[in-house]
Amino acid sequence: MLGDSKNYRLHHRKGFTKTMAKKADLLEKAAELKLEVTDKNTIAEIEAAIAEAGVSAPTQEKTVAKAGKRSEKALAEAEEKAEKEARKEAGDTAPQSDDVEASTAKGPKPVVRPRIERRGKAYQAVAKHVESDKVYSLAEALEIATKTNPAKFDASVEIHVRLGVDPRQADQNIRATVSLPNGTGKTVRVAVFAPESEHAAAKKAGADIVGDEEIIKQLGNGEINFDTLVATPQYMPKLGKFARLLGPRGLMPNPKSGTVAADVAKAVTEAKAGKVEYRVDKQAIVHLSVGKVSFGAEKLVENAQAFFSSLQSQKPGSIKGAYVRSTSISTTQGPGIKVENVVN
Hints:
By secondary structure, the protein is of the alpha/beta class. It has three domains: 58 residues; 133 residues, 2-Layer Sandwich (Ribulose 1,5 Bisphosphate Carboxylase/Oxygenase), CATH 3.30.190; 85 residues, 3-Layer(aba) Sandwich (Rossmann fold). It contains ten helices and nine strands. It has a four-stranded antiparallel β-sheet, with helices on one face. Strands 4-3-5 form a three-stranded parallel β-sheet, sandwiched between helices. α6 links the parallel β3 and β4. The longest helix is centred in the N-terminal third of the chain and has 31 residues.
């Protein structure tokens, strides 16, 4: 305790000595300026009087330590950081090094063309048939779609429906199948994975590939020569080890899509006739091709109505708000056409 008291007194004495020395320097400066101040005035009062006279008060040199926050290096870094912050606030981006030239804007600001002008000539020509702000009826939209195919091939006509569902909820993850009256216009290759007793019926129904061990061998080699795979319920466990191969491609047989069936002949007939599967994606949008441009508007309307009827039947009971938020139609490479919501 005695040592602590002694140290405090020594520290207090040193501080008092520094203060008196500073006050003496200020009084000397004030005397040179012939200011009316005495040693009875405080240091702050003397500094204020000197400042009013237009002369800066004498300042003490900064105490520099050998290491730590008050070292010469640390003080220099702090000063440099403060300068950078000041330049940043002022918006000064010019380089401070003499070796680097300041980057200046060269030439006029580039002009970004409208998106339609960045499209090809064929697209721009067919896009004139579509009014971007107008919402068409289903029949009108499909009629226009048959005239807005910029490609040289027979393009598909696609329907895109944005739903007000949450795909993360199991009861709102829309997935179903629909048989299009006029088909899709595509040649569907159907494979049947079933017992030998079902092979003859599957081939008669129009299956392209029929087998059991043969299909297992092809899948083991990573070969996929079909667009739809139909399997019987008792053969499904054998496909489990190929889930990573078939699943991402949407080829894994599923009861909801009608590709797991005891009556393989019926499943093949439906697949060949135009039975297609649709499902909502992560953005809550359903995409489906309802035919080709060559079908004509009448057949496309029939297919589209069949799809919308199926979509209406899949409306979940737990949904809040609108089931369908927006609908649009387009050809494979053509412009989008806004359509009135057919499903409520």
